[in-house]
Amino acid sequence: MCAAVWRDGDHVRLAAPLLRTQRGVRDPRSYVRQFPNDLASINAFENAMTWLEAACYAATDPREVETACQQHPEWQLRCMRYDGGDIALLGLAGLIRAAERVGPLPESSLRDCLLELIKQIIRNDPALAGAQIDKTFHDGDDVASLDLGFDRQVLVTLLSNTKAADLLREGLWAHHRMMDKQSGWTQCMLVLPHLDIEQPIFVTSRVAISSMDPDHMRASLVHMANR
Question: Is 191 exposed, middle or buried (0-12, 13-18, 19+ CB in 10 A)?
């Protein structure tokens, strides 16, 4: 199950919680929890949900949405009527759990989600116009190297198992690592997916610590681009 549609008076409501958007950036983690091996299809899924939203907006009864889905099989949407039975309840419960669950994702899924978030942040923020992903890494803690222009590089590092008590040590180690690089102004954004902070932490002029919140990562990258 990927969405729920119901009648509310003369309107049809849609709940599609698997693609939460924050200031133009969609967080793929709920989607990955529901479809763990299908992140490559997230763009097609978003397009299908956009079409479904339009179909619901134009309808006054859920049956009209069901008919629209049958008439447009290219969106690969199939309506299942809620009848209070076990199958429907399990599907609805699974959708809610995928949207609300905050437990750890597998390391490979976290890396994919982080890379997807970075791509969207770069694409949607005018302050990062011209920035691009220079390279990606498949092993170790490093996920991507970003070219922010003006000879500024940012290494994005995922620390999924680091505790809050070790933040300062990790930040200082990353600073020394960046100082050892010889090309341009190299900085590092350390991303701790389960870190609970109100805003990014700038340990030194070269190191920012961020949670996986899109706004935190955006603020870190904009700050580094303006250094």
Answer: buried
Query: In the block, which residue shows the tokens 């933040």?
Result: 167
Q: What's the Cα-to-Cα distance from 103 to each of 160, 193, 211, rounded to whole Å? A: 12, 10, 14
- Domains of the chain and any CATH numbers: 4-100 (no CATH), 107-225 (3.40.1350)
- CA 212 to CA 161: how far, in whole Å? 13
Asked whether residue 108 carries a pLDDT value surpassing 90, the answer given is no
Question: What sections of the chain are H helices per DSSP?
Answer: 29-34, 42-58, 62-71, 86-100, 107-124, 167-179, 214-225
149-181 pLDDT, tens digit per residue, is: 777 889 999 998 888 788 889 999 999 888 886
